[in-house]
Amino acid sequence: MIQNPAEKLLYEVSAPGRRCLRLPTLDVPKVDIKHALKGAKLRAKPAVLPEVGELDLVRHFKNLAQMNFSVDRNFYPLGSCTMKYNPKINVTLLSLPGFTKAHPHLPEADLQGHIELMVTLETWLREISGLDAVTLQPAAGAQGEMTGLMVIKAYLESRGEAKTRTKIVIPDSAHGTNPATAALAGFDTVTLKSKPDGGVDLEALKAAVGPDTAAMMITNPSTLGVIEPNMVEIAKILHAAGAQLYMDGANMNAIQGVVRPGDLGIDVMHFNLHKTYSVPHGSGGPGAGPIAVRKHLEPFLPYPRPVKTDKGYTLSNPNPKQTIGKVRSFFGNYGALVMAYIYMAQLGREGVRRNGENATLNANYLRAALRGVYHIHNDKTCAHEVVFTDKKQHEENDISALDIAKRMIDYGIHPMTIYFPQPNVVAGHGAMMVEPTETESKETLDYFVDVMKKIAQECKDNPDLVHNAPHTTPVARVDEKSATTNPQLYCAICIA
Ligand SMILES: Cc1ncc(COP(=O)(O)O)c(C=O)c1O
């Protein structure tokens, strides 16, 4: 097979003595490296590195970069992950020297603008949440959850209830991090089975809560794209039992500016700034998961707290005895906070609300446009995401959600989230969860609809085409399970 050298490994195009750069002949005394780096662990033999010219190197990495799929190049409708477009101005402004050259150890007088930014961001998040106090410190959604539960635990300890209130009730529609966090925070979890429409079963909830309940953690809108209709009633049940109500607000994109969780009775919630407020993220970071709490929980928040005083902005530790301490160094993931601030400042109050409305509208547009083409799990008005399944294609042509997702790649669309929600939640079918977000135009959504219709037709006319997709990528089907469970991360040439 003829292979373009630009697509080969650098080791494969390496030739002895080839260089990107030739240094001039040494005109200073030679230094014995062993002597200069006394005590350092030096290699016995030089590392085997590829030897290539600059153009080969540039082409190699340019080619790799072109193979990367990103929201900047194509539609990326992952469910439950909010891969929305991140305006370039976020990074442009964050790159200003005032931000890049700031150091957290600067004297407070030199940090005034930064502290003001954090105070303002907290104010906006307070307003959106309808709660009383915010900390920006947690660096991810899951860390926000952890911080929220630590705050609840500290509150229970202050009331002498920490030993008795040990359980966290979690609906099965919650995000996976919720039970994981509860367990990590030292609580026992009680799983609540959702009703067929995805909502909380109030009778089951009443039976599940009691004097041993510390809190309920609810993801709202849920990971099924369902807005819980009985939040107020749920809050009453929890509060009547003396327990707290935690809301996973990572899906705030659907309801921001429309509903304030605090008005529904929530005591603690976290935001995923990297999902809702357009901070580029992926593969675990960088993110920001601020939490908002009701007044009675404020004394337990992490420190320092950015505040405004008569003398200016300051970082204070208002309640050193009760605070849970720091959960992240300095002020949290500050760059992520700045980008979220820039994004929100541009949108304004109306823009934030419009985002929520348009995210919801776009998901419902896709739901309506593909009705009858793919089976829809719970075909009712959805929130920010819609769950299709492979039921029809599987029954008619033995095509799975995985096949359909792989075929999408051939049309330049990133596969949606598949098999989540898990088959037991969607009657044994393969879920295909789509979150278009508000940033996609009608033209892009229509292209997606056309592609999905075309694939549905291909499933009937030429099932093998879909079975064997993708056809346009360097590799087609990889063994994803083994790649995750048994990764072989080595370079055969280097160890030869
Ligand atoms: C609903 C929900 N909760 C929590 C999280 C966890 O957030 P993070 O990945 O920032 O820890 C996510 C992440 O996608 C989420 O979708």
Which regions are unreliable across 5 or more consecutive residues at pLDDT < 50?
none
Please give the CATH class of the largest domain.
Alpha Beta
Q: Assign the structural class, choosing from mainly alpha, mainly beta, alpha/beta, alpha+beta, or little secondary structure.
A: alpha/beta
Strands, count: 13
Classify the fold: give the CATH topology of the largest domain. Aspartate Aminotransferase, domain 2
Strand order, main sheet: write it out: 1-7-6-5-4-2-3
Shape: globular
**Helix residue percentage:** 25-40%
Terminus-to-terminus distance: 24 Å
Number of domains: 3
Strand content: 5-15%
How would you briefly describe this protein structure?
With 496 residues, the chain is an alpha/beta fold. The chain has helices at residues 10-13, 33-36, 54-67, 88-94, 97-100, 112-129, 141-158, 177-184, 202-208, 231-240, 261-264, 273-276, 334-369, 391-397, 401-410, 442-461, 463-467, 480-485, 492-495, and strands spanning 133-135, 167-171, 188-192, 213-219, 244-249, 268-271, 291-293, 305-309, 312-316, 375-376, 386-389, 417-418, 431-434. Helices cover 38% and strands 11% of the residues.
